[in-house]
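Lab intake sheet, docking and co-folding queue.

SAMPLE TYPE: protein with bound small molecule
LIGAND NAME: zinc ion
LIGAND FORMAT: SMILES
REQUESTED OUTPUT: full 3D complex as structure tokens
PRIORITY: normal
SUBMITTED BY: R.K., bench team

The fields below were copied directly from the construct record.
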Amino acid sequence: MISLLNDIYKVGKLYFEKEQLNELDSLLDVKNNINKVLLVNIIEKNGKYSYNKIIIEDFDLKKVKKYLYKKGSSRGTDMTPSCLIIDPEKTFNIKFLKWFEKNKDDDKFYNKIKDCIINNKDQILQDLKKSYDELAGDDVKNKNTLLTLLITNENEDDKYIGDYDYFINNLKDKSEEKFYKQKSKNIKGEGNCLLCGENKEVYGLVSNNVGFSFSTPEKLGNVSNGDIKNQWKTVPICGKPARKK
Ligand SMILES: [Zn+2]
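RESULT FIELD (auto-filled):
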């Protein structure tokens, strides 16, 4: 029993240390070698969103939280719509546009942005290729170019995706999936968190993901009813200590 409590203490310590690191800052990929940013500019007027043009701006390290760039899997999309341009057409289709096509949600604001991009995809791609070609004379070949969104409202400051709670929370949710998702299984449920004691949604793969495995889904002996899906009952740890207000 003492050794189990000791294990839980170690997991907790590691987890909270890691979660603190997981604040937005460390969720983002900061790239010093990004040179230019291509912005798909959308104009908002009276709650309506329309595509305007591609804007080129210099990369600004101070805007990292606004660009909200976080690399995803090499074959899939990135964690947010922001992506690095390898080839304008491929990057637009496989990363940027695909992010919106894959990310389904009933959020009203999000769907207006999504519809605007999908409905204007041909025009956006055409403009994007042109803007990227304009950069070609620059040292664009040796430097990365970021593609992201800029939303303009004549009565407000321009907004990047990182200025919207929707995109920030979406990134945080996606980053948390590793704490409960294994293949197509959701290893989570409602229970008492081992670490904070609160009754809330608890995840089963936290201990594995802080590099500590006194209980892995493979060791079925540890799992209630011998089913991986029940691992959250054995090691119930909530996923949101960093999000406590
Ligand atoms: Zn907790």
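REVIEWER NOTE: Residues 53 and 81 are 17 Å apart (CA to CA).
SIGN-OFF: pending second check by T.M.
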